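HUMAN: Mind making up another protein with tokenized structure?

ASSISTANT:
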Amino acid sequence: MKKGVVLICICICVSMILASCSTIFTQLDSNTMIEKEADIEKYNSYIEFLNFQNGWFDAVVETYFSTFGIEEELTIKADFKGFTLDPVEGQTIYGIHHGFHTEKPLQYLKAKPDYGEADDIMPILCDKFEAFLTFYFRDVNEYYKNKEYEKDNFEKGRQFHKKMITDYSELIDVANNFLMAFSSKMLENEAAELPYLKANGYDIHYYALSLLLNAKKISNMFENLEREGKTFLEADLVQYKELFDAFNDDVEAFKLIYKDEARLKQEDYGQINIAFLNQFATTAEMMQTSATDALNMIKAGTTEIDNELTGKVTTGGVNNPISRFNARSDMLISQYNQSID
């Protein structure tokens, strides 16, 4: 049930960057400015919906699965004492959230600019979300809140549980399809800040953001392969090498400047930020290791290689370098949010 973790981090990061992008648009002519503002409103509506779904919503859903299990058959723990999502009497989570989070994305759906496949998937995602919201936060919650399970010995609860498993899996599949379709727009919006940062001397921020974006491009490349039923070993070596070089160049540039006291002062980083900058650099270096492992494996056409960086033989599976790269990318995004943006 952890599918949404990467999405959470990505969406939170995008929202923070988007807020600071407004400084760039003040340099544009009025017509372009209007177009950009419309773009931001639509973009924000999509991001805010994804943030809610992959943040609070998934956390509350996980509360259910941690109580009743993730297998198809319902698990009732020996110490079960009831279950409810409504801590305040008279207020229901369903009543608070029903229709609220899908209103804006659907409102902006046909607005310019056209987001292509992402626009096609958004209404499907909203429908799946609202259907699940109704079922879980109203039907399932009311069943347990009213202790109906005491009357039917969890008979309806077992039926509900199977539907929870199926419906949530379908919702996550659509959400992941949407994210893949929307990822190019997310990268485009994030990258819009780079020229501004470079032109105004924010080099630490520039290289941190640039390496983060190149890391996402690497992750997206391998996610697309997985969607096609391929392994990372089937990646286009030339394409991957280009992304690999760009990521490594940014990491090395960042490492050269992020400890410069004059530059830190110029970019207004304090002692708390510096601690996270150190963590950010360390995580980026670990990602370089994983990216290099992947490069060597793609060249060799096998996961059975001598790993020059760690002296160990990597065999894929839990040691798959792309899995390690993505896990460290999650850490990198969190450290970016805490120290740089």
Q: What stands out?
A: Residues 5-190 form one domain. The chain has two domains: 5-190, 194-339. The beta strands are 305-306, 313-314. The two ends are 30 Å apart (CA to CA).
